[in-house]
Amino acid sequence: MNLRSRLLALMGVFSILATILIGVASYKLSEQTAIQEARQKGKMIFSYIMASRKYFKEQQRPLILELVEQNRFYPELMSGFVISRGVWDEFKGDAGGILFKQATLDPLYHENLADAQEQQLIETFRRNSDLTHLEGVVTKGDATYYYMARPVRVKSKGCLRCHGDPNTAPKDQIEIYGTETGYHWKMGDTVSAYVVYVSIKQALQQAKRSAGILFLVSLGAFFGVLLAIGYFIDRRIIEPVQYLSERAEEISVGKFLDEKVDYERNDEIGVLARALEHLRRTLLKKSE
Q1: Rounded-to-integer distance, Cα 52 and Cα 145, Å
Q2: Model pTM above 0.90
Q3: Taking CA atoms, which of 99, 132, 155, 273 is between 20 and 30 Å from 230?
Q4: Whose CA is closest to 151, among 122, 128, 130, 127?
Q5: Of the candidates 51, 92, 47, which has an alpha carbon nearest to the alpha carbon of residue 199?
C-alpha cells in the first residue's frame, strides 16, 4: 500500500469513527431532551393530581364526613382514590400519551392492582421511609415511558375508616367492594403509589431517525472532505515526493545531473528539494 492509500485509509477510518460518534451523540442528546420534556409534563400532571387530592383531604372530606351518616359510603364523594380516578378519567382524553395509575398492593378496586414493576416501586418506598419520589424510564409492552412515582402512606385514621377492619367499614362500601381485598391497612404502612407515565416512544423513534439522518449527512460530508483532502495530498504531497524520489534516484546513479532540482517551497518538501539540489551541484562539480 502506497503512502497516498495509507493516508486516505487512515483518514477514512477516523472519518467513520467521527461520524458514528456524531450520530450517537445526537441520539443521546435527543433522548435526554425527550426525557426532560416528559419529566416536565409529568411534574405538571402530578402537581395537579396532588393539589386536587390535598384539597379533598383537607377541605372536602371533613365536611362530607360531618354531613353523611356514619355507615353511609358514597365513593364519588368520600374516596380519595375514586375522586382522583374520576378526575383523571375526565382529563385523560386530552392527556396525549400520558397515563396515571393509583398502583396499590391490595386495592378495593381491582383496576388499581399494582403490576410487577409497580410492586417493586412500592417495595422501594417501603424500605426507604424518607423516600418521597422515584422516576426513570420503563418499558410496558411495546411502549417506552418516563415515569414519576410518589408513595401513598397511611397517615390518618380517615384512611383506616375504609381500609382498616372490614367489620367496621361502612356498610355501603362492603356492598360495593366486598371484604376480600383492600383492608387491614395499618398506620404508617406504604400501601400504594401514584404513578404518572409519559410516553416517549415517538420521541425516541424521532431521535433515532434524526441521528440516522445526521449520520448519513455527516458521512457524505466527510466523504466529500476526504476527496478534497485526497486531491490536496496528491497535488501538494504525493506528486512532489514522487518527483523528488525520482530525482534522488537519478542523481544517485549520476543521471541528469545538469537538470536543476526545481521545487521552490517553504516547507519540509522545499527543504528536501534544496538538499537534493545541493547534492546535485556537488556531484556535478566532482564529475567535471
Answers
A1: 24
A2: no
A3: 273
A4: 122
A5: 92
- Tally of CA atoms within 13 A in the half-sphere of 250 that contains its CB: 17
User: 43-53, pLDDT tens digit by residue?
Assistant: 888 888 888 88
Contact 108, 192 (CB under 8 A): no
Check residues 104 and 205 and name the one with the higher pLDDT. Answer: 104
Identify which of 134, 135, 189, 185 has the alpha carbon closest to the alpha carbon of residue 160: 185
The closest of 186, 196, 189, 185 to 129, measured between CA atoms, is 189
Q: Three-state DSSP class for 274?
A: helix
Pick the more confident residue, 26 or 148: 148
Laid out side by side, the sheet with 134-140 consists of 98-104, 190-199, 143-153, 134-140
Cβ atoms of residues 128 and 136 within 8 Å: no
**pLDDT in the model for residue 3:** 67
- Nearest Cα to Cα of residue 260 among 278, 242, 245: 278
Residue in the structure block whose three cell numbers are 523528488: 244
What one-letter code names the amino acid at 54? K
State pLDDT tens for residues 146-159: 999 999 998 877 77
Report the alpha-carbon distance of residue 137 to residue 150 in Å, rounded: 15
pLDDT in the model for residue 104: 92
Closest CA to 39 of 153, 207, 203: 203
3-state secondary structure of 21: helix
Domain ranges of the chain: 3-13+213-287, 36-207
Q: Which CATH class is domain 3-13+213-287?
A: mainly alpha
